[in-house]
Amino acid sequence: MRKDNWTSQEDKILADTILAHIASGSTQLQAFEEVSAKVDRSSAACGFRWNSELRKIYTEEIKKAKTARAESKMKRSNNDYSEQVEQDYEDTFGGLLEKLKSKISLLEKELDRVKNENTRLKITLQDSRPDVVLSEDFKNMIKIIERARSLGVLEKTS
């Protein structure tokens, strides 16, 4: 470990590291440990240098770092809230959506069954009442004859 005077470069490393730790929400003690490895001094020496000399010089930067930390914390809190809202939405409406899809599937099957039954009944009705079919054919033939008369192709016989 070194025992000589601090250089301006070492002071800058110490200040930048501590300000970064403040902004990120980490502790100054962790910053002292990190700086001690970079400048080959003890973490106690780094703490002493920061508290006795540099803290007074960097008061504005400390305020900015604390503000950045608070904003970051607020963003995380807002993100947590947003994630919770999304989860609540999924829990509430996701299950409802699945229930609706299931109900739609059942209704589609029921619709198919009813259509098939309707077709079957129409065929049964036609097979059991041929006079109804003939009656429709007879009506259509009369319409054709009336149209031919109106065009002058046929004359009325009375």
TrEMBL record:
Residues 1-54 form the Myb-like domain. InterPro entries: RsfA-like (IPR014243), SANT/Myb (IPR001005). Residues 97-124 form a coiled coil. The keyword Coiled coil applies. Keywords: Coiled coil. PANTHER family: PRESPORE-SPECIFIC TRANSCRIPTIONAL REGULATOR RSFA (PTHR41302:SF1), PRESPORE-SPECIFIC TRANSCRIPTIONAL REGULATOR RSFA-RELATED (PTHR41302). This is Myb-like domain-containing protein.
